[in-house]
Amino acid sequence: MEKEESFSLEKGDANLELDDDGKPRRTGTWITASAHIITAVVGSGVLSLTWCLAQLGWVVGTTFLVVFAAISWFTCIMLADCYRSSLNGARNYNYMQAVKTNLGGLKYRFCGIAQYQTLVGVSIGYTITSSISMAAIKRSNCFHKYGHDKECHTLNTQYLIIFACIEIILSQIPDFHKLSFVSIVATIMSFAYSSIGIGLSIAKIAGGAHPNTSLWIPSRTDISKMDQMWNTFCAIGDIAFAYSFCAVLIEIQDTLKSSPPENKVMKTATTIGISASTSFYMLCGLLGYAAFGNDAPGNYLTGFGYYDPFWLIDIGNLCIVIHLIGAYQVIVQPIFAFVENWNRKKWPESEFANKRYTIGRFTINPFRLVWRTTYVILATLVAMIFPFFNDFLALIGSTTFWPLSVYFPIEMYISQAKVRRNSFTWIWLRLLSFVCLLVSLLAAVGSIRGLVVSVKTFKLFRSAS
């Protein structure tokens, strides 16, 4: 039987030298942390950025990309200092624990709701995106074989099931310590499909594409002013989703070696991760908008703005699937760890919760097997019920960007640094938080409205690409 009191996600073998908290020595570096961040950041959000630019125009769209990147970087730098307690240097193993240490119980509960809503929502979003990319591979080959005029629609359900089966197996990876290789592969894949999208956009522009683009928010004639307004809000939510990785930042930081100090290494990794991600976001979004203009598809590798070369489209979508397989695990590990640690504390004598069985090179825990399998199945069922790419991503981004990426980091910084109330720093930090709250609320309204409209015409379990 084994007892584990820590919420830590980074564990090694028992014979390794111990860290200052009595846990096996952590081995993470700025390289692995950067890989985890890029894996978490450059996900399905990049695929919708061309559509976002088409709703916002050159100036507004680019401004939101830069502003969200700057805010995410700034608040993550503050959040990195919350890994250790300012009083005694004790580690906070996860985001919720950092909030509890710095802000107390009530905000701790609010944080738990916001964080796990984010992680659950992102895992569902990744499931939706992966199935669409799998279906896009089949559609691409269909278009190549029968011509671009053929509809080539295919149901997504079978691909959702395939993705779920893969994640059920990978979900038995016990913790973040075992995910470094998965994250590195996923990072390579994210750069690969982003590069393919950039290359295809450049080729389309060089081929003489001259679509209609707008300097400011486009004035459309194909939809009503009200619909255009909702699409604008939804696009803002999509951009917010593209930077929603703060929920796992503390967990990633808990994988780092103690020397040099974790906060310094994490700040370096955060700067590298957000800089690299933003560079790709700008290239994908701006070049994609230049290639497609105001008629850009919702997902620029699966919406078939591109048809040829079909094999390159297939490779790009395959890279998306491989990346999201790994990104899914980075996102759900905190959920798994929280439930499993709570379960072990609640029933420390339970063999079902604590006993492990060795089968060859693999170690199986009955509770972990049942719980993680159940989670993947439930997330997949929700993805089948609400398979709406842009609106779903916008809802996740709009409802979680403010609390996790802005509010809690700012509040913890004010508490740790003992910022004097009504001082200049206190006022502008609170003003930043308030403005981000307003933007998030507008984006949430737009995404909810989009989901309501989509559900009216949707047939349950009959999602098609």
TrEMBL record:
Residues 1-21 are annotated as: Disordered. InterPro entries: AA_transpt_TM (IPR013057). It is found in: Membrane. The chain crosses the membrane at residues 30-51, 57-80, 181-209, 229-250, 271-292, 312-339, 369-386, 392-410, 431-452. Residues 1-14 have a biased composition (Basic and acidic residues). Pfam families: Aa_trans. Its main location: membrane. Keywords: Amino-acid transport, Membrane, Transmembrane, Transmembrane helix, Transport. Residues 26-452 form the Amino acid transporter transmembrane domain. GO terms for cellular component: membrane. GO terms for biological process: amino acid transport. PANTHER family: OS05G0424000 PROTEIN-RELATED (PTHR48017). This is Amino acid transporter transmembrane domain-containing protein.
